[in-house]
Amino acid sequence: MDMNRVRQIIDWFAGSGLESFELAEGGNRIRLDRPPGNGGAQPVAPAAVQAGPTPQTTPQTTPEAAPVEAQALPVEAPLYGICFFAPAPDAPPFVRPGQAVKAGETLCLMEAMKVLNAVTAPRDGVVAEILVQDGAEVEQGQPLLILT
Question: Could you tell me the CATH number of the domain that includes residue 132?
Answer without folding.
Answer: 2.40.50.100
